[in-house]
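Protein Entry — a single chain follows
Next Lines — sequence and tokenised fold
***
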Amino acid sequence: MNWQLLPQFAITGLLNGGPIALIALGIVLIFKSSEVFNFAQGQMLLIGTMATWWFASDDGLGLPLWLAIICALGVSVLLGLLIERLALRPMTGQPLLSIILMTLALAQLLQGLTILVFGTIQRSFPVIFDVTNPYQITLPFTYNDNPIILVLRQNLVWSFVVAMVCVTLLWLFFQYTSTGLAMRATAEDHETAQSVGIRINRVFGISWAIAGIIAAVGGILIATASGLDLSLSIVVLAAFPAVLLGGLESIPGAVVGGLIVGLAQGLVALPNSDFFLGPDAAQAVRNSAAIIPYIILLVVLLFRPDGLFGQKRIERI
């Protein structure tokens, strides 16, 4: 086991987990407000990121990057509102399975529309954070008399910071604004919220609009490190286990779940990680890094079926 590299891969994994936590938060937000598990979150992320590229690139409008991001967030808000109004609202009162299948169909529809509009080629995303001058941090301890130096890419560090700032702003929004309080009340009980004058259809629309913004911001942060193509939508496959790991209705759980998923992926990528899994299993997981979040999820759910921070509800029959 190469212990000298352990801090480097652990910190890198945690930094990668920041955007995953933000994307997971968008999924939790939709579920809390409307009890719908949104399988189209990845495609909303892809469209928001593609819109940013189009607004900013010379092949598109060529706007300044800051203005391109604002315009893309507007597109994401409009997309979220259209999904809620045209796809979800007509499904009110239908079985939950039908609504979930509708979000799956919506994901395929949005993916196809993205291919038709933007094509399938990989694109270079506009540079937001410096990628040439990484931060170097010397830890206050050594390994075999060798200093341990962390090399952290600026784009990863600042992507994590932006993701955590967005999470904090959302927490403040839910805690201290009347709209946020209305959304929390609707999440607890739709009928009770409606009986005290809360317009739950308006709350659903706001929830989907915010989820669109979250998806776009998460996609932009990830695209700054990995580039932009249609495979960007599959990053949500790491957010799904993060949501279930933290608890479907828990906002702090989504953040913690995303960080755990990022940390796990970083540790598995560690050279000579046979210490954790054994040589054959470690090599298999390294060849398919998407597996490890689901392995962790299965282990946790065996002991805590509601997730780490999930709510246990007791219903009388």
User: Anything to note?
Assistant: The chain has a mean pLDDT of 84. The longest strand covers residues 135-143. The two ends are 54 Å apart (CA to CA).
